Amino acid sequence: LALITSLLNLPIDSALDLAHASRNQWTMGEISRYDVVEHFVDGLLSNIENVENNTADSIVMLSEDGKVNATSDERTAECDKMGSIEYASQRNAINLQDFLPRINVITSEWSKKRFLSQNIQKPSSVEHLRRILVQTTWIPFVTGASFGYLDHGTGLHHNDGAFAGLFQNFIPQSKSGLRFQPCRYHYSLLLPWSFDLLSNGLNILLSHDKAVQFWREGLRRGVQ
């Protein structure tokens, strides 16, 4: 999700506003805890769907309760605040044919016969991108309402891509065919294994300032 935010040239404050709006809908009981990520993803991808619109009308402003709440003049003012012409032209210059092939989404896929195999997908459309972003953030009973996101087309379940990485050193072996498969690709977020980061990894109530701190730390280490 951070990669999508970066590729969209979306200011971190705008991305956090989307995240907080989704969280606030949950705290007010309007959506389930398991819908928070999907609402956030929808908010991010609305910036792709609006790329053909070069006016301030493509700026989406959300109230604290997660509702679209802005007049045309207010959206124009928000556009000015975020960098106006420079920001709008950068975002709206995105070409989907150039944007989508740059994305590789890692998930941990599994089935009854294959357990935690690494899978890398390239989105073919905005809707496909939405689906695999939800898959790669699916943590059982934390962000997702079941053990895995079921892809009805393939019959495979998907989870957060980090799960496969945790088992990448296992040697495939099992008479029953149920086995761990080591990762075919090696990757790293280049972030420190600090208590501060680990203890906030699943903190849905993460503050704005703490989120900005982690974002800047990632940028400092070359994670974009």
Please tag this protein with its features.
single chain, 4-stranded antiparallel β-sheet, 10 helices, 4 strands, 224 residues, alpha+beta
Q: End-to-end span in angstroms? A: 11 Å
H and E order = HHHHHHEEHEEHHH
Q: Please give the count of helices.
A: 10
The strand order across the widest sheet is: 2-1-4-3
Q: What value does the Rg take, in angstroms? A: 19 Å
Largest sheet: 4 strands, antiparallel
Would you identify the regions where 5 or more consecutive residues have pLDDT less than 50? 51-72, 81-93, 173-178
Shape: globular
Structural class: alpha+beta
* Strand residues, percent: 5-15%
Give a verbal description of the structure.
- The protein is α+β, with helices and mostly antiparallel strands and 224 residues long.
- Helices cover 42% and strands 8% of the residues.
- It contains ten helices and four strands; from the N terminus they run H-H-H-H-H-H-E-E-H-E-E-H-H-H.
- The protein has helices at residues 2-7, 12-27, 36-49, 72-81, 84-92, 96-99, 126-136, 162-166, 195-199, 208-220; strands at 105-110, 117-121, 149-151, 156-160.
- The N and C termini lie close together (11 Å).
- Residues 51-72, 81-93 and 173-178 have low confidence and may be disordered.
